Structure formats: C-alpha cells, structure tokens
TrEMBL record, chain A:
InterPro entries given in the database record: AAA+_ATPase (IPR003593), ABC_transporter-like_ATP-bd (IPR003439), ABC_transporter-like_CS (IPR017871), FeS-cluster_ATPase_SufC (IPR010230), P-loop_NTPase (IPR027417)
Protein name as it appears in the record: Fe-S cluster assembly ATPase SufC
Entries under SMART domains matching the protein: AAA
UniProt KW keywords: ATP-binding, Nucleotide-binding
Function: Involved in beta-(1-->2)glucan export. Transmembrane domains (TMD) form a pore in the inner membrane and the ATP-binding domain (NBD) is responsible for energy generation.
Gene Ontology terms for molecular function: ATP binding; ATP hydrolysis activity
Pfam family, one: ABC_tran
Residue span, ABC transporter domain: 4-248
Gene: sufC
Record's signal peptide: none
Entry similarity comment: Belongs to the ABC transporter superfamily. Ycf16 family.
Keyword Phosphoprotein: no
Taxonomic lineage of the native organism: Bacteria, Pseudomonadati, Pseudomonadota, Alphaproteobacteria, Hyphomicrobiales
Organism: Bradyrhizobium hipponense
Automatic annotation (TrEMBL), chain B:
Residue intervals of the SUF system FeS cluster assembly SufBD core domain: 227-469
Family statement: Belongs to the iron-sulfur cluster assembly SufBD family.
Cross-referenced InterPro entries: Fe-S_cluster_assembly_SufBD, SUF_FeS_clus_asmbl_SufB, SUF_FeS_clus_asmbl_SufBD_core, SUF_FeS_clus_asmbl_SufBD_sf, SufBD_N
Source organism per UniProt: Bradyrhizobium hipponense
Protein name listed in UniProt: Fe-S cluster assembly protein SufB
GO biological process: iron-sulfur cluster assembly
Pfam family, one: SUFBD_core
Residue ranges of domain SUF system FeS cluster assembly SufBD N-terminal in the record: 162-218
Organism lineage string: Bacteria, Pseudomonadati, Pseudomonadota, Alphaproteobacteria, Hyphomicrobiales
Length: 250, 498
C-alpha cells in the first residue's frame, strides 16, 4: 500500500479551480521533489493534504496509509503523521517556542493514545534535536517565530519535523531564505530523518537543494497538474531549459 | 468550513454546561424582606449588630440614592432593573456566631471545596509533597476570607496574621472591633454619593473584607477573598476596604463565582484602597461570575466601583483583573495619584463570549507631582459579545511631570462580536507626557491552521493564541493564580467541554 495516494484531485478556491485532476503516489522511504512555476498549485496541494480550511475538493481522493485523509480534521492528520513545513511560517506572539513544542507534541501523543512526555524527557529530546540542527536554546524561549529571521523560521520548521517524527514530511520551499550554511544544516537535518518508514515531498524552485536532498523522483507541476515525472536528472534538465516546454502540455 | 468560522460555530454553542461553578448549594437561609426601604437598611444594620453611626451612614446613603438615576453612558444594554424585586440580605442559617470552621454548615464547606478554595488551614499546611519540577500552590500560605451570599463565613490564618499586626477580617466584624479605622477610611475613597451603584452599596452592603497593614509591615502571605452568590433573586453588595499604612505592602486577590440561574442577578460591590507614604497595594481579581447561557439568558450584572487612593508620597497601587464571567460588566478600577511620585497600574484581561457585554477600563487621576501610571488592557471578544475599553487619564494643573503609558489591544474571534476603545485624555499642564497605543486584530486563520497542523485541536489552538495575546497581563498575577487564570481563559473560549 502506498503511503500517500493523490488521485485525480480537483480543488477550487473561491469558485476558481486551481488543481485540475492531480495524481501523485508516494511510497514509504521515498523522496519526491515537486517543481514548477509560480502559481502552478504546489502550495495548494500541500495545504489540501494538510487540511487547511478554505479549499473545496470537488473531485478525486487522497488516501494516507489507505485511509481517506479528506475525512479527517487537520489535527487528526497531524497525529497520524502528516507534517507540513510551511513556505511562510507564522508568528505566535506571547507563546514560547518551548511551550508550543511541548503542547503540540503532547497533543499528538494523546491523540494516538500514547502517554505524554514528562518534563525531563521532553527537555532531553528537545535538546538533542536542537543541538543537531544548530538551533540555540535561547531561541526556544522566544515567542514562536517572533522576530526570527527568515532562515531561523525555516530551521524551526525542520526542528519541529525532527521532534514530531512524522511519516510524511511535506517541505514547501524550505530552501527559500536560507543562506548556504543554513541550507546545508537544514538539509542534513532532513537527510537524518530519511528512513525506510518515512517519505518526503520536497517542493522547491531550485535544483541546488536537490544536490543536498537527493530525490528518488522529480515531478513537474504546471497549471494545476503533474505534467512530467522522472528521476533526479529531470531537475537538471529543468534548470537548463526552464518550464516553457511544459506550458503547452498543461 | 474555514477555521475561524468553525471556531465561531463552536463558541456559539457554548452552553451552561461549560460553566463549572454553576451548581447550587441547598441550605436554609435567613433573608431580609424583599425590596428596598429604610426598613431594609435598618434590618441589615441590626442583623450585623452595628453601632448607631454605621446605621446613620447607611441611611444617609439610602436617602441620597433615592434622588439618583442609573447611569446610561456605558455601552451596555439591559432591561430596567426592578430594585424592589430583589432581596438585599441573605445569610446562611444558623445565625449564631461562628467561632470555628467546624460550626460552619458542612454544605457551605463542601461548596468551597468544589470551588477548589481551601478553607481549612491545616489542609494547606500539610499540603502534599509537590512532584519534582512542579510548583505546588497549596504549599504557599494564602489567607482566605470566604463570603457566601451576604456574609463572611470563614477567615483563615487570622492568628498568624495577627502576630504580624495585620488585620484581616470581615468588614462587619471590623465595624464592631475597629470602629476608629473603619470610620476614618470608609467612604474616604469612594464617597457615599459617588455613583448610583456605589451609593446603593453604601446603604445595603452586608459584608466583605477589611484589611489593615500597619506601618513598615510586609504582609506575610497573600490575602484573598472568595465571593459566592448562592441565593435566588439576591443582590450581592460587598464592601472591601484595604489600608496599607506607611511603608507597608500587601497583595490581595478576589475570586467570584455564582450558580447558573435563568434570571439576572445584581452584584454591586465597592472596593476602596488607601496607600500611605511608601506603601504598596497589589489587588488582583479573577472574576468568573456566571455569564448567562448560550441565548444570553441569566447571568450576573456586575456593576462595581473600585478605586484606590495613593494618598502618600511614593505610594503605589496596582490593579490586575482577569474578567471572564458576568452577563454585563461595568467596572473601572481606578487610581487617584495624590501623593508626589506615586504610581498607579492597571492590567486587564477582559474576555467576552456568547451575549456577554463588557464595558471596563480604568481612570488614572494624576494630582501629585511626578506621578506615573501604566495601563495595559487586553480585550478578547467572541460569539455575539461586545467588549469596550473605556479609560480616562487626567493630569491636574499641579501634577507636573505626570506620565502615563496606555496600550489597549483587542482581539476578535469571529465577526459577530465587537471591540471598542474609548480613551479620554486630559492634560491640564504642559509637562504631562501621555502615550496611547491601541490595536484591534482578528484572530488569524493562518495562525490557527499552523497550530492545528502541529496537532492542536481547534479549541486548544484558540486557547494558546489567546493566552499568548494576554501574556503580559497574566505575568502580573501572583503565580498560583496565573495558572488558574490561564485555564479559565481557555475554558471560557471553549465550545465544548474538553
Ligand atoms: N486563497 C486563495 N484565493 C484565491 N486564489 C488563490 C488562493 N490560494 C491560492 N490561489 C491561487 O492559486 C494558484 C496556485 O497558488 P499556489 O500558492 O498553490 O502556487 P505555488 O505553486 O505554490 O506558487 P509559488 O511557487 O509562487 O509558491 C495561484 O494562482 C494563486 O493565486
Ligand atoms: Mg508556494
């Protein structure tokens, strides 16, 4: 059984169809890259998988571990292992990052019927993860993403991903806004999470990220559909020729 | 359904079940005849064994009240109150003087137990060992005065406070035992003629707390009073008087709950604070009166006058309030900054949901030189509620160097509620520096989605975001109450019992 199966998905936003029948299958252990021009619907796809309100699915299906994902509340999806690293992470003033991490982690564990982490166990885990991602401890005391630089926000997303250990990680342009060193650290963090049980969907505009996180498959999206799929060579090809060749196909 | 829409729907469904304190205690009570007249006033005074001067004071207030009309300037809307259809005094039977906790009706003790308020000193002293990494509020000593309907039923830690010279007792007792102090200070901050509800209170107040902290004494523990309205059709008119003599310090907290009833109940309290030279009073309120049901039926009318007088130089009064209950709140804890270099503070969290109406704020009256004040107000409106901040900052001609900083932030959850900010600023001398900041924002759909994507339920997400929004104010509360207040905030915004 595939981990994620998106079948002929049609999605509307405010009466306008954005995804026009998109199909994508992701198996455990695989890394998929999705590339495509601005406005082609990449973030829309990630939002619909995560369950963001405001999108109307008019046709098609999304199965996650064989279950109908569209029937689940977004927090239920999170507890089942769907994680979305946002293109634009939001700020939550007055809520310490540490408090947020703990509340979220325990909410997920509770939903899965697991016991909540004790304070010492939780602290130990956060310390390990933040150390490996080079996230300073005092950043965790600050409000969630409040006053974080663009790069710090992205690192905070990867930190949460490492902490929650989801089975499906969707990374929406995690490379945008990262300097070269930060990119390498974040990519190392993502690579460390690669496992035969876990799959990744990496949305990016730049082939450079794929040098660090080497994908098994590359898909090109254009105008709300996957118009071409291939292996990592496809990304290099795109880098050379751009997207215009696919405009007609879409 | 968009996230905010969903929250709004859930919030709308808020029901009486939500209100954890809505139970009623079945006890016999002793009531004054219904309605208000000189006879009622005399009845109350007699019940309390009051000296003649006190009765006189009440009667003057009553006669004054007859000439007054209800204020209508607040942004609240309710049917006219029939003041003759209320009981002005209700006391749990038996009426014999209670000398120890064992003589209190066990039903009342149970009530306070249900409310989580420890009336037994011993239980607090023997508090269970806290687990590692956990703070245990039960181990901190807190002296409690419990007011049930019209009378104080228990005051704890009296002996220990007495050793420090601190007087903490029901005001009805203070009138008899410390008449010189009561006569000197009662009505000196809120005069009997102050306003319709304060005047009414002066005529019929039945109990409340009295605190006197002698010069140079730092009160050895938190003092707190819990008010509970139990009887039907009964107004609660408590009176609190706190005096901090030169160089003293006291921190005081009041909490309030009431059973859920279909009819509205009136609560018209008066609180007076006096801080002498170099003294400091910190007054915190966690107000959780029954707010009414999801259709706006029932709930407490909370029409309260609270004022602090920074009478001495370098004195300080700080009000912190967490207001989550009541059908209508009309309340402006204020500071008169009379002493030179005195300071007033007002920290407020006001949450309205369902059909609640809140009109609350503060007045900072700068009279002395180099006086300063700070106002931090956080209003959160959900459901169909209306939430108004109303504030006045004035500097008198002689108040040179007066400084004020005001920040009012409002957060809206849904689009059927309203938040309003009405600041009045008057500077009668040119050296005053007043700063005012105000923001109004809607709870962000993206922020809520971020939280639920990380596994929080919609309600947990709202609770978390709101708690973040009010953090600056929560930090002002004594630690053990901050935790309680935080829970209360989440609960009052929840749509279903979580
Ligand atoms: N809430 C919305 N209301 C109206 N249109 C929307 C909304 N969200 C997305 N769209 C439209 O849907 C299309 C796809 O947007 P989406 O954000 O998914 O693109 P993308 O592939 O992620 O682009 P980028 O590479 O710039 O991030 C765009 O034309 C966008 O304007
Ligand atoms: Mg995008």
């Amino acid at each position: 059984m595939a981990l994620l199966e998106v079948k002929d998905l049609k999605v509307r936003v405010e009466e306008r169809e954005i995804l026009h029948g998109l199909t994508l299958t992701v198996n455990e252990g695989e890394v998929h890259a999705i590339m495509g021009p601005n406005g082609s619907g990449k973030s829309t796809l990630s939002h619909v998988i995560a369950g963001k309100p405001g999108y109307e699915v008019t046709d098609g299906q999304i199965l996650f571990k064989g279950e109908d994902l569209l029937e689940m509340d977004p927090d239920e999806r999170a507890a089942k292992g769907v994680f979305l690293a946002f293109q634009y992470p939001v700020e939550i003033p007055g809520v310490a990052t540490m408090t947020f991490l703990r509340t979220a982690l325990n909410a997920q564990r509770k939903a899965r019927g697991e016991s909540e982490y004790s304070t010492p166990d939780f602290l130990k885990k956060v310390r390990e993860v933040s150390k490996s991602l080079n996230v300073p401890q005092d950043m965790l005391k600050r409000g969630v993403n409040v006053g974080f630089s663009g790069g710090e926000k992205k690192r905070n997303e990867v930190l949460q991903m490492a902490l929650f250990e989801p089975s499906l990680c969707i990374l929406d342009e995690m490379d945008s806004g990262l300097d070269i060193d930060a990119l390498r650290i974040a990519a190392d963090g993502v690579n460390a999470l690669r496992s035969p049980k876990r799959a990744m969907v990496v949305i990016t505009h730049y082939q450079r990220l794929l040098n660090y996180i080497v994908p098994d498959f590359v898909h090109v999206m254009s105008r709300g559909r996957v118009v071409k799929s291939g292996d990592k060579e496809l990304a290099l090809e795109l880098e050379a020729s751009g997207y215009t060749q696919f405009e007609d196909a879409a | 359904m968009p996230a905010v829409q969903e929250t709004v729907e859930r919030v709308k469904r808020i029901d009486v079940d939500q209100y954890r304190y809505g139970f009623e205690t079945l006890i016999e009570s002793d009531k004054a005849p219904k309605g208000l007249s000189e006879e009622t006033v005399k009845f109350i005074s007699e019940k309390k064994n009051e000296p003649a001067w006190m009765l006189q004071w009440r009667l003057e207030a009553y006669r004054r009240w007859l000439t007054m009309t209800e204020p209508t300037w607040a942004r609240v809307d309710y049917p006219k109150i029939d003041f003759q259809d209320l009981y002005y005094y209700a006391a749990p039977k038996p009426k014999k003087t209670i000398t120890s906790l064992d003589e209190i009706d066990p039903e009342i003790l149970k009530t306070y137990e249900k409310l989580g308020i420890p009336l037994r000193e011993v239980a607090m002293l023997e508090g269970v060992e806290p687990k590692v990494g956990e703070d245990d509020p039960a181990r901190r000593k807190i002296a409690v005065d419990a007011v049930f309907d019209s009378v104080s039923v228990a005051t704890t830690f009296k002996a220990e406070l007495k050793k420090a010279g601190v007087i903490f007792m029901p005001i009805s007792e203070a009138i008899r035992e410390h008449p010189e102090l009561v006569q000197k200070y009662l009505g000196s901050v809120v005069p009997t003629s102050d306003n319709f509800y304060a005047t009414l209170n002066s005529a019929v107040f039945s109990d409340g707390s009295f605190v006197y902290v002698p010069p140079g004494v730092r009160c050895p523990m938190e003092l707190s009073t819990y008010f509970r309205i139990n009887e039907r059709n009964t107004g609660q008119f408590e009176r609190t008087l706190i005096i901090a003599d030169k160089g003293s310090y006291v921190s005081y907290l009041e909490g309030c709950t009431a059973p859920q009833r279909d009819e509205n109940q009136l609560h018209a309290a008066v609180v007076e604070l006096v801080a002498h030279d170099d003294a400091e009073i910190k007054y915190s309120t966690v107000q959780n009166w029954y707010p009414g049901n999801s259709e706006g039926k029932g709930g407490i009318y909370n029409f309260v006058t609270k004022r602090g007088d920074c009478r001495g130089n370098h004195s300080k009064i700080s009000w912190t309030q967490v207001e989550t209950g009541s059908a209508i709140t009309w309340k402006y804890p204020s500071c008169i900054l009379r002493g030179d270099n005195s300071r007033g503070e007002f920290y407020s969290i006001a949450i309205s949901n369902g059909y609640q109406q809140v009109d609350s704020g503060t007045k900072m009256i700068h009279l002395g030189k180099n006086t300063s004040s700070r106002i931090i107000s956080k209003g959160i409106a959900a459901g169909m509620s209306q939430n108004t901040y109303r504030g006045l900052v004035t500097a008198h001609r002689k108040a040179t160097g007066a400084r004020n900083f005001t920040a009012c932030d409002s957060l809206l959850i849904g689009d059927k509620c309203g938040a309003h900010t009405v600041p009045y600023i008057e500077a009668k001398n040119s050296s005053a520096t007043f700063e005012h900041e105000a923001t109004t924002s809607k709870i962000s759909e993206d922020v809520l989605f971020y939280c639920v994507q990380r596994g929080l339920s919609q309600e947990e997400a709202v609770g978390l975001v709101v708690n973040g929004f009010v953090k600056d104010v929560l930090q002002q509360l004594p630690m053990e109450f901050a935790v309680e207040a935080q829970k209360l905030i989440s609960i009052s915004l929840e749509g279903s019992v979580g």
